[in-house]
Amino acid sequence: MGHSAAVWDYRAATEITKDWNGIDQIVLRTPRGASARVSLHGAQVTSWRNEQGEELLFTSSKAIFKAPKAIRGGIPICFPQFGNCGSLELHGFARNRMWAIDDNPPPLPANDSSRKSFVDLILKSSEEDMKCWPHSFEFRLRVSLTTDGDLNLISRVRNINGKPFSFSFAYHTYLLVSDISEIRIEGLETLDYLDNLFQKERFTEQGDAITFESEMDRVYLSSPNVIAVLDHERKRTFVIRKEGLPDVAVWNPWEKKSKSMVDFGDEEYKQMLCVDGAVIEKPVSLKPGEEWTGRLRLSVVPSSFCSERLGLETSGF
Q1: pLDDT digit string (tens) for 15-42?
Q2: What does the buried/exposed string (b/e) look like for 208-227 if buried means 16 or more CB atoms within 10 Å of the residue's CB?
Q3: DSSP labels for 95-161?
Q4: With CB atoms 3.0 to 4.6 Å apart as the test, which of 52, 225, 277, 306 could cross-link to 237 if both were Cys?
Q5: pTM score, whole prediction
Q6: Beta pairing class for 116-124 and 236-243
Q7: 183: closest CA among 275, 55, 61?
């Protein structure tokens, strides 16, 4: 009975359309009007809207929606490399590949499929990928919306290779904010971080919250599973819950770097902030046949509600 209900949810609340380049995208909807769009190019979530139809993810007005260029915004998947911490192209190749809809994925726990609109996607290693990263893998991604409009991403990477391999990973999440100078992140205070603006030198966070006055490009290490991004002007808070993702990358390019990026508006840094659930400092190692799972849940709550309760939260899900 439960399985047929999940299938009904999926068919009733999911539609496949095409973007202006003719690439398939999947639209997820909830009965109350929240929605999300997922492109088969990169398995990238390109839109997440609340029940009032307000967009919650940032996408640059200058984003290039044409393969092989990655889309500047939404939630790119960084795999099998985050940033430039290896020999591959920036953030790896998964965000630049065409994924397929996975019609018969291995089962997830029951609570991951009930009462949700969802889609399952899959990426397998190609001959082209094997030339630069010689490992056979299957990467499955489930994107779902709960009835409350929360956005969930579950990644499963399986080693189908004859030898072990390791990888770094991130959900490179571009949040849409009102004004970056009014934003604060709670949950990362007192943590060590690697600062990419200082050759990945290690520092310890001193502030009682993270605020923004200039360019920031950091990886916070061994972070809690619940983090809050408070948007004072909009009086709302993004709550980020994660599992299997010990690190958090925080990035805003600020004024100077914004002007150097061709697919990013000069002033757009004011309306965006990347806060990524990630595995960076200690890459995931998989033996043949092993599988890794990384989960992210994004929700939005009134700021007053969240700041009172955030310290009481101890687990991601």
Answers
A1: 777 665 666 789 999 999 999 999 999 9
A2: eebebeebbbbbbbebbbbb
A3: GGSBPEE-SSPPPPPGGGTTTEEEEEEEEE--HHHHHHS---EEEEEEEEEETT--EEEEEEEEE-S
A4: 306
A5: 0.90
A6: unpaired
A7: 275
Kindly provide the residue ranges of all beta strands, DSSP E only, lying in 205-260, ordered along the sequence. Answer: 216-220, 226-231, 236-243, 247-252
Is the predicted pLDDT of residue 312 greater than 50, yes or no?
no
Q: Could you tell me the sign of the dihedral formed by the alpha carbons of 100, 106, 108, 112, in that order?
A: positive
By residue count, the chain amounts to 317
pLDDT at 83 over 90: no
Q: Are 145 and 117 in contact (CB under 8 A)?
A: yes
Closest CA to 219 of 169, 167, 166, 184: 169
> Which of 303, 102, 297, 89 lies closest to 186 in space, CA to CA?
303
Question: Do 185 and 209 contact (CB within 8 A), yes or no?
Answer: yes
